[in-house]
């Protein structure tokens, strides 16, 4: 790889909060609409979920997410649709209640303050 190729790759690289793979159920709700789905991964700033059948949301919409981890951790928060594909929905948190912030950071552990490189290619 030449110096120019390396520079181009570096320019395309971005950083994001590290994702932690977690399997758990999520209930997405908005108004009178509710969809059960599964969490793919979670980070300090957002979550990636499987796109439920019949879901017709769009980027920019705010949804309430209810996630249950184990027997004793229930996190209820608001998130905005950041991106949508045929199979997944990427959400960015817009409001995490004060009493759920510490439990979320505890769940994330070292992922809470770790960045990872990624490329749009």
Task: Count the beta strands.
Answer: 9
For the record, what CATH class of the domain at 32-111 applies? Mainly Beta
Mean pLDDT: 83
Question: What is the CA-based Rg, rounded?
Answer: 16 Å
List the total number of helices. Answer: 2
CATH architecture of the domain at 32-111: Beta Barrel
User: Which strand order spans the largest sheet, edge to edge or round the barrel?
Assistant: 3-4-5-8-7-6
* Structural class category: alpha+beta
Distance between the termini: 17 Å
Shape: globular
- Helical proportion, percent range: 10-25%
The biggest sheet, with number of strands, parallel, antiparallel or mixed sense and barrel status, is: 6 strands, antiparallel, barrel
Order of helices and strands: HEEEEEEEEHE
| CATH fold title of the domain at 32-111 | Thrombin, subunit H
CATH superfamily of the domain at 32-111: predicted glycosyltransferase like domains
- Strand fraction band? over 45%
Spans of 5+ residues with little confidence (pLDDT < 50)?
A: none
